[in-house]
Amino acid sequence: MSIGRSTLRNRRILVIDDNSAIHQDFLKILGAPDAFDAALLADEAAIFGTPQREAFEIDTALQGEEGLRMVERAMAAGRPYAMAFVDVRMPPGWDGIETTRRIWQTCPDLQIVICTAYADCSWAEMQDQIQPGDRLLILKKPFDTIEVLQLANALTEKWQLLQDSKNRLDNLEELVKQRTAELEESRSAAVAMMEQAIRQRELVEKVCEDLKLQGCVLESMFEGVAICTEEGRIDHANAACGAMFGYAGPGMEGILLSSVLDGLPEQAGRIFNDPVEPADHGPWSGELKGRRKDGSSFITRVRASRLIFDTKRCLVVLIEDITAKKAMETQFLRALRMESVGRLSCGIAHDLNNILTPIMMAAYMLRQPSPAEETEKAISTIESSTQRGADLIKQLLSFGRGGSGSRTVVKVQRIVWDVEKIVRATFPKNITVEVNAEDSGWPVVCDVTQLHQVLLNLCVNARDAMPAGGSLTITLGNASLDENEAVLHSNAKAGPYLVLQVADTGEGIPPEIIDRVFDPFFTTKEAGSGTGLGLATVLGIVENHGGFIDLESTVGQGTVFKLFLPARPGAGEHAAEAPLAGSPGGNGETILVVDDERGIRDVTEKMLAGHGYKVLTAGDGSEAIAVYRRHRDEIKMVLTDLMMPGMDGVTMSGILKKMDPGIKIVASSGIGSVRSRDAKQKELQALGIHTLLLKPYRAEVVLGALGRELQTVPA
I need a labelling partner for 255 at 20 to 30 A (CA). Which of 84, 221, 386, 508 fits? Predict the structure, then answer.
């Protein structure tokens, strides 16, 4: 901002003198002229071309005190005096020196002229008293008019110049302050920018270090990690992932996720389209089939979650090869099942002895002459006892067969009833068993063998907790959990559940160890009496089915296990195999019976002959082929065992089918292993044989199967 000189000139003069005549002299010299003098001055200016004299504004005071007050009022009004004529002697008040000193305390810029007829003090003394600097002049009386005018013009101009200089200086100081503030602001901004740049650089360096560390961690992980685009293509895969699927280096980048994992793309679609935020929804996890580059397959455990970075969405997939773990788990479960069977062996032996005793006694009675009704009663005893034995063996085989089956929709009531038969047959008689398994229980999706094992383990633990006897109660029920109830249980989700409850009236679990009963290898039994893995296995199987367990126990009163399994209300159970039915007897058809057990051949021959069939027998596959060659035109059907020394039943059936593709064959077997039985059944189906009877079987079952096959028309 430019600073210019003020256009308003200050012409105010103060005259301080105790003589009023002096006041009038100054007014005449400096003040505005009267009308007559003004006319003369105007004529002079017109004639000679000289400018008119500019008048001063004159104020007067008789004493120094009065003059000081007038200076103060002028300062307060914003109209200060430019100069003052002060008489040196003004009795009885202040003299001119004292008046000047006091006025300068109020208005230090006022230009003062001391008027004196004679000097009361020297100039040196005057300077010592008031330090006048350049603000003071001496005017000797009597004074000259021209001298007074010159002093008035010069000193008012000086005062004006001083004020202009001060204004410029003030403006300059303000400008300097402004510029200094701007420079300070610029410096502060520059320092802030520099500090921000340093922080950003440090942040970038840290991010780079973090990325390097994360990259190293990612590449050093044993689990496979794949980051996929929204379109389902792998954008990045770590080394473990590439090695797992047989790809070297970045070979997996760009390939479709569906080409290496079966089923995950559908789950990924649900994850991407779920409106719930991933932090609230959580990742998807499960077991999927993986496919290597060479075409081989393996089992994986997968966790997939959605990641949103800015506006980009991707899928982060963690993959673990659990093929070996699954194999070990299968072996472990088989060993655990066999341990349970071993723990039940005493009860099984007791029950089998109870089954065999009436058979042996009835056989003895049949050798003795007896009335017809006694003979029929003995026969009925043998039949019921053998059926009891067959049921017991079937349940033991279904539990101890090894391996786990696929998960299907089942009614748990059937599993409960199966375990009930084993428990009633093997547990001590001082333990009462009560089952409340209504058919209204919701179906569940489960591995039947594993759930069978869970229930039997809990029952065996209940038996061991009641050495002096007690009550074992198995109850089925339904429950629906809402969100508030689900959060009270670990790993629980809202929805329908089937509740399987096993309660005993045994010793109970002490509070100090109840939180440890599910820990692996924790047991309160004596050494050699248990592995401590029973309840850990139960918990693992239940959680693997998406369920959870509630445990309540009171010392001296008993224990209650509540198993919550996700239910499928309204889902249809997989249909069981329909019972065989057919004609109760034959019409003279010839049946070839092949079995290496003579007792089975003889009984079957007599039974079939008694029901209208002609029977030929053979003790093994080779003999059967020879018999068939001799009686090919007579034989209408072959009933053969599968497991025989030398040539087994499957091989023999294949040869007979080549000799006569239309020959009808019914197979039978006592194979206990479901895996082996299923393998044999697949071989039979490949030969066109669809009927397999499982030993032991009743006569009606054999007759029904033969009758049905004879009624079928060859394809």
Answer: 221
